[in-house]
Every structure is written in structure tokens, then in C-alpha cells.
Design brief:
Number of helices: 6
CATH superfamily: Winged helix-like DNA-binding domain superfamily/Winged helix DNA-binding domain
Number of strands: 2
Number of domains: 1
Largest sheet: 2 strands, antiparallel
Strand order of the largest sheet: 1-2
Radius of gyration: 18 Å
Distance between the termini: 25 Å
Strand content: 5-15%
Length: 147
């Protein structure tokens, strides 16, 4: 029986899961409230002046309802706040709080250490090549026909 080779999406998903699991376990061990992957991504997607839930949903590639649920949990933890949008009376902006900034900085520092562990395990050249490959421009997703 031959073993099937995992496709690239599965390999990338597995690598992301490894990073997410390491971050969650490390933050929990440090006494921080664990966040979901979607909640963690929100911090990287927020504009300094604030971002609407609709825009966060677009950036995350999820529904507004899903984005709202992730934001609601972070509001309850005091990591984000809602403020009026000066450009629209209908919208509210989501912004990071002082506590949210502290937690986000700690998570970023933890990710730096985790990346160092990964480099130790797979080799510095491979870790550097992986980061380089993932940051190269890919262009628009292609539409192809299977052979």
C-alpha cells in the first residue's frame, strides 16, 4: 500500500495549527486568557484609529456574524473597545485597549520565541526560506483546469 502525499493546503493548515497550539499553550502557561485563532488575527487586522466589524469580516474572509462573535469575546475580556465612528453615525469602530496592547505585545514576543524553536527544529536556513517563500507576491489566485 502506498502512502498518499499530503497536499499543500493540508500541510499549511497543519503548520498553522502547530503555531496556534504553541501560542495558546504558552499564553495559558503565562497566565493569559487563551484566545481563539480568529480572535488573535483580529489584533493584526485592526487599524490604529479603529476598524468596523464589517471591514474586519472582509479582512478575515468570514461573515459579519463570525467577526462580530470574535470581537464580542474580546470586548468582554477588555482587550477591545467600541467607539463611535466619526465618519458615520451608523457605524462603530473597534479599537484595541491598553490591556489589549499589552496582551498583543506578549503574544508577538511569544511567537518570536516559537519561531526560534521552529528554526532550531527544522534548521535556520529552512525557516528563513519558509518565511521568504510565504512573503513573496503570489498575484491573483489562478483559475486552472485539472489535466
Amino acid at each position: 500500500m502506498t502512502e498518499t502525499v499530503q497536499n499543500l493546503p493540508l500541510l499549511l493548515a497543519g503548520a498553522k495549527r502547530w503555531l496556534d497550539d504553541a501560542l495558546t499553550a504558552s499564553m495559558r502557561a503565562a497566565g493569559e486568557q487563551p484566545l481563539s485563532s480568529a480572535q488573535g488575527q483580529i489584533f493584526a487586522l485592526l487599524d490604529p484609529e479603529g476598524t468596523t466589524v464589517a471591514e474586519l469580516a472582509r479582512r478575515l474572509g468570514v461573515t459579519r456574524q463570525t467577526a462580530h462573535q470574535a470581537v464580542h469575546g474580546l470586548l468582554a475580556l477588555g482587550l477591545l473597545e467600541q467607539v463611535p465612528d466619526p465618519s458615520s453615525a451608523r457605524n462603530r469602530l473597534i479599537r484595541i485597549t491598553t490591556e489589549g496592547t499589552r496582551v498583543h505585545r506578549r503574544a508577538q514576543a511569544t511567537l518570536d520565541v516559537i519561531e526560534g524553536v521552529l528554526a532550531d527544529r527544522i534548521g535556520v536556513a529552512q525557516a528563513t526560506a519558509l518565511r521568504t517563500a510565504l512573503t513573496l507576491p503570489r498575484g491573483e489566485p489562478p483559475v486552472v483546469e485539472a489535466p
